[in-house]
Design goal:
Blueprint (H helix, E strand, L loop, with lengths): L10 E6 L2 H13 L7 E4 L16 E12 L9 E4 L12 E2 L2 E3 L7 H11 L3 E3 L2 H11 L3 E9 L21 H10 L3 H28 L6
Parallel strand pairs: 1-2, 1-3, 3-8, 4-5, 6-7
Antiparallel strand pairs: 3-7, 4-8
Helix pairs in contact: 1-5
Length: 219
């Protein structure tokens, strides 16, 4: 999914891991008439597909945006955490600033979330952010990390859900169908995840649109 700029050669890029995140953000940008000023790239889970065609002359900044698990107990579904805002920059964006930890694997249980919170002090956990940060640094452009909570600290996730998404962030329909045949109990779990993702996606889009519309990435 791409939105090409009509405002000059340099523009902000938004990276997401999966298409559902990109669609939520794209919808928010379109609703605000901002889709012509930004480009969205789906880079896959664990940032396996970082683009090779970006340069400092085409990139104004990078926002890594998507869903995340809460580590901090007060966070609720749809709350948004932002990391990387300059200390002098104040935006009334309806989000919380804090650390976001990047894990190599899904952090699926309340016990693991609690342990990771104690170790890192991070508010949320994802699987891409700290892989994208060095990429932005290599281009010499600003980097922001934005995550909307789709599972809270006391939620337990089934790692099988990752089997239903390919490395380009798209749903694998046959794997999903076969998984539900083998484990019908996943239906309710996936329905809940879907409901949480819709709520998180709405807030994610709102916050990303506000950040893109600020002067954070102004030339």
């Amino acid at each position: 999914m791409r939105y090409h700029s009509a405002m000059g050669p340099r523009k902000p890029f938004i990276f997401t891991a999966v298409h559902a995140e990109a669609k939520a953000i794209g919808r928010a940008l379109r609703d605000r008439g901002m889709n012509s000023s930004v480009e969205i790239r789906v880079i896959g889970i664990r940032a396996k597909h970082l683009p090779a065609d970006m340069t400092s002359s085409t990139t104004r900044g990078i926002i890594m945006a998507g869903f995340a698990g809460a580590l901090e107990a007060s966070l609720r579904i749809g709350d948004v955490v932002v990391a990387g805002l300059p200390s002098h920059h104040v935006i009334d964006g309806g989000f919380r600033e804090g650390l976001i930890h990047t894990s190599a694997e899904m952090v699926a249980t309340p016990a693991k979330k609690s342990e990771l919170f104690a170790m890192t002090g991070a508010m949320a956990v994802d699987m891409e952010g700290e892989r994208v940060r060095p990429f932005a640094e290599s281009l010499g452009v600003p980097f922001l990390h934005v995550r909307a909570i789709s599972d809270i600290a006391t939620d337990e996730l089934d790692p099988a859900v990752l089997d239903f998404i390919d490395d380009r962030g798209r749903v694998r329909p046959f794997a999903l169908a076969w998984g539900l045949v083998r484990r019908p109990g996943l239906i309710l779990k996936l329905a809940r995840l879907g409901m949480n993702a819709r709520a998180a996606g709405k807030r994610l889009g709102e916050v990303v649109a506000k950040l893109v519309g600020s002067d954070l990435f102004a030339d």
